[in-house]
Amino acid sequence: MKGVPLNEELYNYIVDTFAQEDDILKGIVKGTEENKIPLIQVSPDNGKFLYLLIKMIGAKRVLEIGTLAGYSTIWMARALPEDGKVVTLEISKEHAEFARSNFNKAGLENKIQLVFGKAMDSLEKLLETPDSKKKFDFVFIDADKENSSAYFEKAIKLTNSGGVIATDNTLKNGNVIRKDVDEGTKGIQLYNEKVANDPRVESLLVSISDGLTISRVK
Questions:
Q1: Which CATH number fits domain 8-217: 3.30.390.10, 3.40.50.150, 3.90.110.10, 3.40.50.300?
Q2: What pTM value is reported for the model?
Q3: In the structure, what pLDDT confidence band is assigned to residue 31 with cuts at 50, 70 and 90?
Q4: Which residues make Cβ contacts (< 8 Å) with residue 45, sequence separation at least 6?
């Protein structure tokens, strides 16, 4: 087996050295717990990884499918230039309201557009806009896992050539290698197989946090 097993001490070293949370991000995590919103936001190192990917490709427009409390949204918005924009899709009114308050606290409300409603409906509306300038350079999929492949099919039509689609939780706590799994894990298994063999993209599953599958659109 290649690589170094990542125990808690090594993980804390990585986060403390490279991905420390500021007060805004810490406050989101605390508020998420206090508001009894599921603590399923990306990890700090994953957030920093998304930030760096966006910086590296020089992205200006980012699409996020699944806002939750806005933790990952803020990581990504901070990576954008002044004229950059994150469009983030959220189905829960409670989550959307909490996320908006976090965007305001972070001073990023002008860089983030939150679209409330079912993600598939919102994606359809985005696809109805023919203007190529409305396409995205980076897409982050982090919503209901059973629909991951369907989100990808919409997202790739909205992504510029050379852009990146990143999908979270693609290891599913190690369960992607099992046969008797729930619908969400089945959805991820299908997603990984799909993008690994899709001629429109070049992909790799990166073993950061719970797994992040990255696809570069050709």
A1: 3.40.50.150
A2: 0.94
A3: confident
A4: 11, 14, 15, 18, 19, 208, 209
